[in-house]
Amino acid sequence: MRMTINTFEVHERYFQQGRMGIRVERARKPNSKTKQAFKFDVIHRASLKKQRSVSVTASKAAIAEPAEAPIVQTYENPMLANYVPVYVMLQLGVIADDNVLADRAGLEKQLKELRAAGVDGVMVDVWWGIVESKGPQQYDWSGYRSLFQLVQDCKLKLQAIMSFHQCGGNVGDSVFIPLPKWVLEVGESDPDIFYTNRTGIRNKECISLGVDDKPFFNGRTPIQMYRDYMKSFRENMADFLESELLIDIEVGLGPAGELRYPSYSDCLEWKFPGIGEFNCYDKYLQADFKEAATKAGHPEWELPDNAGLCNDIPESTEFFRSKGTYQTEKGKFFLTWYSNKLLTHGDDILDEANKIFLGCKVKLAAKVNSQLFSSIAGIHWWYKTESHATELTSGYYNLCDRDGYRPIARMFSRHNAILNFTCLEMRNSEQPEEAKSCAQELVQQVLSGGWRENLEVAGENALPRYDTEGYNQILLNARPNGVNKKGPPKLRMYGVTYLRLTEELFQKQNFDIFKTFVKKMHADQDYCPDPEKYYHYTVPMERSKPNIPLEILLEATKSVKSYPWSEVTDMSVSETSGFFADIIAMILSVFRRNRN
After folding, report:
1. Does the record carry Hydrolase as a key word (predicted)?
2. Is 504 considered catalytic here?
């Protein structure tokens, strides 16, 4: 039976006090401007779920216990409950290599145009390779302070990414920003600090999780380096953190900032739709696997040697073909180990991030910035095959009968971190048949898993799109069951980031359609500067919940059908844009103001 989410569950997700959600506990009552235009009928529902509480001695995930249900007060305009904020990703090289704001005048003009179009904010990579380039713990935030001040002056919100990876080597990368030189120098004497494929090719895009706890960097481990970087960010951006500017912090967890292995990359000469390669052949991960196999009673097991090369197809390899190695006891053990290493890696870094941004204060009536994001890659090709080969090489142990994403969502939940997913714009019909892609089903699976773990989920497009079809697919994923004119929709994404800010976006026809897209994301409502009015309540970040035992995380691998999606969005971006669309929007805006 297809599972559905009822209205009460949705209201709970948006209004529950002290829940373990992706947005920090946000049970603050609406402020004095709130009007009791309508109330949700919750009197006959006696309880709401409390936060998940798991102890290391639990054999099962702790079951939420009853709590008294609040009577939720809402704002006068219930359509605002359907509002999904839109952010635009800034250029990769907005801060130049010499740590200065590139083309300030041009960027200011673009930011003002975005603001006039109703865009809520922008997102930017805060590159490790720029800020800490001069030497260990020698931080220079000057370029980013200039950028942040400009964004604030343009009255936009800001999402900042702690980018601990190289810029360059991924789809869409037009700029090259390497890791700090002093980090790369450690790799010259010990190349095993980098992810390595079976043939020995090193990927210098980011540091391997195999050395997360190794003090190879002037006495610091990689996780300690990430911690110190975030600590310096908080100290040097305190004024922006305490203002209404910074609303979200995204924590990079791997290549392209995503929680995955670099299984498909330029250094491997990968071409779409190649299956990619396992990247766990550095000496540290090899030793870790050998130790795990020995403890499991199989000291003879080695890492796979039959998984092919990055541009192979599944059926050409012994590992991924039908009835291949991935289905054997040895194969299952390896895939479990490989994916579990990602879980532990992400959990450890998010725990440090939570400590750093713990208790961020806000001025009275201002919004708080205590929000953590983390990204999962959208590996949609070969999803329509038994082995899901590219997902497996990336570290997502996802099969038709095994959910590889929900355990990640469950891990995120203890840190109050948003699950950020990509490829929102993709439709199956647009992908080549030979890729066996199911981008739509993948999006539905990952978002549903996040919602089932009581998370907020956000997303972005994977590739630039300027057409109505791409925008409409994003709109559908943002509100899978459409708007609710009486209050919160059944399902709603926390926010959407559009990739990315380019000159092409500002071409008249493209920008006219984009402005309509923003309006539709806002459920045909005017730009709303106050997130509380669309139910984004926040309080200072609290400490992460206790560690969730690995066996409890893996209980989430049980396959469950995704929530149902509508066929098409009910907030379509039509070709009717430009002057006439602007006139219609103006008339509707005046009518709504007069009515209220």
Report:
1. yes
2. no
